[in-house]
Amino acid sequence: MKTSHALIATVLLATGVSASAVAAQPAAAKNPLSVHVLNLQTGQPTAGIEVELDQKQQDNWVKLASGVTDNNGRISALFPQDKTASAGSYRVVFKTGDFYKKNNQKTFFPEIPVEFNMEASGEHYHIPLLLSPFGYSTYRGN
Fold it and tell me: How far apart are the C-alpha atoms of 58 and 53, rounded to whole Å?
């Protein structure tokens, strides 16, 4: 059985593509925004929280995208794939009230909006949320 490197070399030779041409291809752009929710009561990731991404345009917030945290409490690509990130004011809104209601728990914060500024395109922004029913903390992660 051929190793993966040998198999790749065989495919490249068969198609007439050189390894240097493949190496020169730009890597796929990483999504500029990800979020992560951790439950401070359990120390575990929090799956099932809806998160909305909005951009401030003049005096209004315009919804760009939304998603739901996975089993690891993450949304790894929240920024719309068909849009280019630009400098400006954005916010992510964690819909915590819906999550706690589904889990028959009370919470003081039905939504947690986190406003932030994107300073330059090409950077990655990661917004973790440390969550409990009556408190939260957030910061710029990496």
Answer: 16
Regarding beta strands 135-138 and 125-132, do their DSSP bridges make them parallel or antiparallel, or are they unpaired?
antiparallel
Check which CATH number belongs to the domain holding 42 and give it. Answer: 2.60.40.180
pLDDT in tens, 16-38: 444 444 444 444 458 899 999 99
Q: Residues comprising the binding site for substrate?
A: 36, 74, 139
**Residue 3 domain flag:** no
Q: Which residues are annotated as a binding site?
A: 36, 74, 139
Cβ-count burial 96-121 (b if 16+ within 10 Å, e if not): beebbeeeeeebebeebebeeebeee
Count how many domains the chain has. 1
CA distance 48 to 67: 9
Confidence (pTM): 0.77
- Domain, as residue range, for 134: 33-138
